[in-house]
Amino acid sequence: MIVECDGSDALVSTGRSALGDNALLQLACGNFHDSMAAFLKGKLWLDAAWVAEQLMTTAELKAFVDNELPWDATREQRALKYEESDAGALLGYDESGVPDDFYTHRMRWLLARRLASEGRGDISLPYFPQANQTIAKDCFSSLKTARNPKLPIAQRARAWQNAAWLARTQGLELLGTEREPDNAATEGQFDAPPTRQIRLAGKFQEPDYPANNLVSKPLGLPT
Fold first, then answer.
1. Backbone φ, ψ for residue 171 (5° rounding)
2. CA 170: distance to chain centroid?
């Protein structure tokens, strides 16, 4: 079993490990719904996010969130309280004490960003956290204006500019993936391990960071 992002199962209890094994069995059988449910129950968030983003269709993911992950104002408050604590930055490490509401919050946000990236902004809005809904609504409204050929060119240009600025400054929160390539799970600060290669090889691999975290030349530019 590949356990989260640090390559070690030292922090995973027997019960959580068993749920992870069950999730992998369901995965091998093509039961993505049951696999993700087991990963979530075992508090193995990065594995659950991988299934959500890499294996489930958007329709399947939305149905899972709507039918399996209850949500209301009280649950949202509990999730946000945990997210604002120091422990809320520990996704991928010791998650044994993470409340279930926090995972529901993250999965709803993951779905919101996926819907938004597919151009389904209106549908995505209820799944965004309250703190991000105003910015999301502004971005989607600007895109709708920019794409309207009946409006004056200057108005459309301003709308494109506003949407581009919001995507530039809030893109991770509005459109980013939870795992690679955007790594919203770590707020985009660190590359996640190469999940696909890890699963194919059956063993953990460290990310290939550039020496001293420096890039020797601008990417995509001729030498």
1. -60, -40
2. 14
Task: Please state the separation of Cα 68 from the chain's center in Å.
Answer: 18
- Whole-number Å distance between alpha carbons of 76 and 51: 23
Examine residue 200 and state whether it is found in any structural domain, yes or no: no
How confident is the chain (223 residues) per 10-residue block, as mean pLDDT? 44 82 94 95 91 96 96 91 70 70 95 96 94 95 96 97 95 93 82 64 64 47 42
User: Crossing angle for the helix pair 100-117 and 45-54, nearest 10 degrees?
Assistant: 20
How many domains would you assign to the chain? 1
Residues of the domain holding 154 = 129-175
Distance CA 195, CA 7 (A): 11
109 within some domain? no
Q: What is the pLDDT of residue 4?
A: 47
Q: Is residue 46 situated within a structural domain?
A: no
Q: Give pLDDT, residue 202.
A: 67
Q: How many CA atoms lie within 13 A of 123 on its CB side?
A: 13
CA distance 136 to 128: 8
Residues 6+ apart with CB under 8 A from 218: none
Residue 171 resides in a domain: yes
pTM of the shown model: 0.81
pLDDT attached to residue 151: 97
The per-residue pLDDT for 82 is 87
How far apart CA 1 and CA 61 sit, in angstroms, is 23
